[in-house]
Amino acid sequence: xxxxxxxxxxxxxxxxxxxxxxxxxxxxxxxxxxxxxxxxxxxxxxxxxxxxxxxxxxxxxxxxxxxxxxxxxxxxxxxxxxxxxxxxxxxxxxxxxxxxxxxxxxxxxxxxxxxxxxxxxxxxxxxxxxxxxxxxxxxxxxxxxxxxxxxxxxxxxxxxxxxxxxxxxxxxxxxxxxxxxxxxxxxxxxxxxxxxxxxxxxxxxxxxxxxxxxxxxxxxxxxxxxxxxxxxxxxxxxxxxxxxxxxxxxxxxxxxxxxxxxxxxxxxxxxxxxxxxxxxxxxxxxxxxxxxxxxxxxxxxxxxxxxxxxxxxxxxxxxxxxxxxxxxxxxxxxxxxxxxxx
Length: 342
Ligand code: NAP
Ligand code: F7E
Prior knowledge:
- The chain is 39% helix and 15% strand.
- It is an alpha/beta fold.
- The N and C termini lie far apart (41 Å).
- Bound molecules: NADP nicotinamide-adenine-dinucleotide phosphate and ligand F7E.
């Protein structure tokens, strides 16, 4: 049985941060999250976890800070004295990274370096997790990618993640920090931001079913991704910090599907005619595209005992059902029954 620890999560308000916080709290750990000041609420994904920190026994504590404010990072490391640091914060949108390359690089490369430095300069020695991405593989040469595949980034986001990945290795090798790089392929859920394509599709179709929208505007439908289920990927992330030695791990399902396949499956479940509702909008195209990704997570299976459980069609259903509920529709009444999944 693992002894309760103190964990610090950057990016706790995001999709992954919310699932990771939930899992760590369920396991009895104390969780601290770094949040940004925002003019509107940005804590919707973790509201269900929040207990007034003045209440005795409250184990989730939120702290204002920013990856670009290194003083806030140093203060947090000293105050919280975490056993584990999960660095999930980032400008995480690939298309947006072409519009905001400097900000993207700053949050990812400079932010990660500042956090590593804050740790190195303190007397605290937490285990460190870095949220790396399959986008780092970019213009792939082989149909499968694993920990030894070359990085050929195709966007400012991906290039920045390669920089942060290298920085984590430097701190591991030069200073002996227990610092781990996860290389996670796309992972989705009902908590995925609707600016990413899977959630954009499931949310858009639910809204069409509810009569709230009349169409869905998309870009490149031919790109393929290896899509998994986010909560399972956060289980893998936790396991990475429980190993005897720090190492890097690919986390993926091993299946690849095109955006078109995701769209077709969603329309099939909703029993709607995609020809009537889907429109092309070039604004969603990228100056450079990653055509196809497919991960080989054999090392994670062997060393972490981790395997994905949720397959493509199940993932589509989980997301579409949640989006139907969100707009007040009963999935049982508006979607094809589960046993009719292809
Ligand atoms: P997400 O939903 O976009 O969440 C990003 C988080 O980072 C949010 O909490 C955001 O805060 C925070 N953030 C952004 N800029 C910040 C800054 N300057 N200072 C402090 N916090 C900042 O992303 P996600 O899908 O959960 O992904 C988590 C991490 O994994 C990211 O680093 C992403 O690049 C990486 N990743 C994701 C995937 C995937 O498929 N989901 C795959 C591989 C790697 P606000 O809520 O205030 O915006
Ligand atoms: O795009 C195409 C788009 O934005 C997937 C991030 O979590 O995963 C994510 O990055 C594909 C691309 O995710 C639209 O051109 C078509 O080929 O959902 P996405 P992403 O770029 O793969 C990686 C692993 C990360 O690390 C990132 O942080 O879908 N596509 N039409 C579209 N994409 C969007 N967003 N919107 C469209 O309308």
